[in-house]
């Protein structure tokens, strides 16, 4: 059974930092494209950061230069370091793991989400 467990969310003041963690079980994160997505109230889920299994990273325009996605293979965990947080970063953040099976179908797993709130 695959589980992605996010942690590290909370309330932080504007300009502050948080580090989110996504601990995986049932999969090996280095074999998957791992990503962080977020969803604010009334808005669609959007990509925050993606790290492919080859190490390439992609960031949403609104977080470039402030957020960093990384991976610890030994801990089978993916992180999202968030610096210079802004009120508009407030959302539920979700961890995602995906890859194509040899059959062409998609393996796609989601965590339960962790709340990040940025407010003074």
How would the blueprint of this fold be written?
Elements: E1 3-7, E2 10-12, E3 18-25, E4 33-39, E5 46-51, E6 57-59, E7 67-72, E8 77-82, E9 91-100, E10 106-110, E11 114-118
Parallel strand pairs: 2-11
Antiparallel strand pairs: 1-3, 3-8, 4-5, 4-9, 5-6, 7-8, 9-10, 9-11
Could you characterize the architecture of this molecule?
0% of the residues lie in helices and 53% in strands. Strand 9 and strand 10 (106-110) form a beta hairpin. The protein is globular and about 50 Å long. The chain is mainly β and 120 residues long. Strands 2, 4, 5, 6, 9, 10 and 11 form a seven-stranded mixed beta sheet that branches. The mean pLDDT is 96.
Query: What is the global morphology?
Result: globular
Q: Rg to the nearest angstrom?
A: 14 Å
- List low-pLDDT spans: none
Helix content: under 10%
Number of strands: 11
> How do the SSEs run, as a string of H and E?
EEEEEEEEEEE
Whole-number mean pLDDT:
96
Count of alpha and pi helical runs: 0
For the sheet with most strands, the description reads:
7 strands, mixed
Distance between the termini: 40 Å
Label the structural class.
mainly beta
Strand portion: over 45%
Assembly type? single chain
List keywords for this structure.
120 residues, mainly beta, 7-stranded mixed sheet, 4-stranded antiparallel sheet, 11 strands, 53% strand, globular
